[in-house]
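Researcher: Re-running this chain for the archive, since the previous output was lost when a drive failed. Same request as before.
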Amino acid sequence: MRVTIALTHFSPTLNVSENLGRMIALISNAKENDIVVMPEGCLSGYDENLSFLDSTVAFHIESSFEQLQSIVDERNIHLLFGSCIFERGSWYNAGIYMAPHRKRHTYKKVNLAYQERGMLQPGSELSCFELHLGDSSILASIQLCREIRFPEQWKALAQEGSQITFYLTNVTNSDNLSVWNAHLISRAAENQRFVVSSNISHPEQGCSSMIVSPKGKIIKKLQDDVESIERITIDLNENSNWYVNQTRRDVVNIVTS
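Model: Regenerated structure tokens:
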């Protein structure tokens, strides 16, 4: 099955309205049935000091969700993006999937960064979601930022049937660029699944916005410091269970609770 990824990145601020405007401008370049992918925290904004998250920010995030959903419905696209969200008295770092007809999936980051702990609550579930494209559908999953360091999470999602993992991050430190990109290549190759990575655009980008094939080949990489959107078509028939099915579960068994 062939799908088109509209891979984007931009540099968000701590102003929800400004971020929403940039998101809408980028989405305007997408085509019907595109899967638009945006970075971690790109709606709410993100910073190592999360004290900017308050009730006013929560209100603006929720109202922005409604605007984004209306655009998704109108343009008949699929949208994945990151945002801090407020639910039942707690803040979470989340990856959001919006589909036409108000279908939505929320992934709450399981493995929080040190600066997030105490301010944010961790998620408790690794799960796939269904992405409908015409008469066909695929299973997909989301991972966020430092979760690239935990390959067992990616393997568990592959075992659950995820055909593509959307990796949303917000990291700047070019000294670590080669390591984080190597992690992305490894996660794709070891699970034989496509990986779509979206980081914020920045001169010191610490992880590339790029698409990696199930063979570990970089198909497309966005220029690190330029706000952009590029449409890339991939063939999910390149996925394979060759290595996943050879897992020695009698020795090491990765399961989800």
